Amino acid sequence: MAATRTVGATTEEARDTRTPPHGHDEGPRTGRLQGPSPQAVGMLALLLTVAIWAAFALSARALSASTLLPADAALLRFGVPLVVLAPALWRRRRRLAAVRLAPAAKIVCGAGVPFFLAAMYGGSLTSAAFVGAIVPGMVPLFVSALMVAGGKSAPRGTQAAGLALIVAGVVALVWRHTAALDADVLLGTGTLLVASGLWALYTVGLREVDLDPIGSIGLLCLPSFAVIALLALTGVLPTGLAHAAGGDIALFLVVQGLGVGLCAGLMYAFAIRRLGPERSSVVGSLSPVAVVLLAMPLLDESPTLPVAVGVPLITLGVALANGRRRPRTEVSADA
After folding, report:
1. Contact 115, 173 (CB under 8 A)
2. What's 256's DSSP letter?
3. Confidence tier at 33 by pLDDT (50, 70, 90)
4. What pLDDT shows up at residue 61?
5. Inter-residue contact 111 to 199 (CB < 8 Å)
6. Radius of gyration of the chain (CA)
7. What is the DSSP annotation of 95-130?
8. DSSP class of residue 9?
């Protein structure tokens, strides 16, 4: 881009004064090779986010076996993005201060300390597959309910069928454990459902704020880090970060801080702006598939009948629910 600059002319002026080679008519610009569409870029960002969410689900289960406590993981989750993005967030301070209270509360509660502690506690009582299946898997249903409550029409046709299949797939994955009436599993399942509902609030809230992805991360992490630091300093939440193993700190710093907090936060906010909350929440339901597949080699979780039934149901449900409905006006346009 720097090569196109000329003295006394802007870049756009330099482009306009260039002439095509002799004997060649440049023709309309539509003939040029075009890059990927904004929707395609948004979908790629969302798929990368799904991969990172899978790592989050695995780390939620691994936390109980590490030398870190939930407060330690939360400090890394919300603190690392603040350190990395500090200069950029300072430049956005006025826009952050201007955000309305209602959408800010959705973001801070939906993906902040309440969500994080609910997901981690639920994961400690269940398994990585539960975290990956329930939290992102049930989000489309909660988002649809929130959108209907906000005045939008309810999903119909293949989209409604897709949502039903996603729910059926999640139920298939967890049914074997809940049917045994294990008190810990039932409590963990209920806690993960709360976390899923909170994440739906976050998904809707992101679309309601006039912030870029970096600003959205700042809006989430600034109050969340302040709250978790206060709870740790006052002893409400115990912390063992000073005595934790270096390997555990490095793992959670990469997965929670850089992965979930920074990379996934940026890409998910970007995808919401490109695809909208409903479509993003639906594609995010592929996370259970990734978690189940990764849990087998990493956590020695053997394939079971619920996995064989639930994973294909979720995948098919995502494919159906991700389809766009045609507006009714298209049908009657030629009438």
Report:
1. no
2. I
3. low
4. 67
5. yes
6. 23
7. HHHTS-HHHHHHHHHHHSHHHHHHHHHHHHHS-HHH
8. B
**pTM for this one?**
0.73
CA distance 203 to 197: 10
CA–CA gap between residue 281 and residue 210 (Å, rounded): 20
What pLDDT score was predicted for residue 27?
A: 45
- Three-state secondary-structure class, residue 319: helix
Q: For the residues 213-217, what does the mean pLDDT come to?
A: 93
Name the phi and psi angles at 6, rounded to 5.
Answer: -130, 155
Query: Bridge partners of 6?
Result: 9
> Considering the chain, what percentage of its residues have pLDDT values greater than 90?
27
The overall longest dimension of the chain from CA atoms, in Å, is 80
For residues 219 and 96, is the Cβ–Cβ distance under 8 A? yes
Report the C-alpha gap between 144 and 160 in whole angstroms: 10
Residue 199 to residue 219: CA distance in whole angstroms: 15
Angle between the 101-111 and 113-125 helix axes, to the nearest 10 degrees?
20
Question: Over the range 28-48, which residues count as b (16 or more CB within 10 Å of their CB) and which as e?
Answer: eeeeeeeeeeeeeebbebbeb
Take residue 80 and report the two structure tokens written for it. 């690392």
Cα–Cα dist 58/292, whole Å: 10
Q: What one-character-per-residue DSSP string does 283-314 give?
A: HGGGHHHHHHHHHHHHH-----HHHHHHHHHH
The residue to which tokens 């959108």 are assigned: 147
Please give the helix or strand (H or E) that residue 188 lies within, else none. helix 183-208
Q: Which two tokens stand for residue 170?
A: 């999640």
Give Cα 6 to chain centroid, integer Å: 43
pLDDT level of residue 264 (50, 70, 90 thresholds): confident
In the predicted structure, residue 261 carries a pLDDT above the cut 80: yes
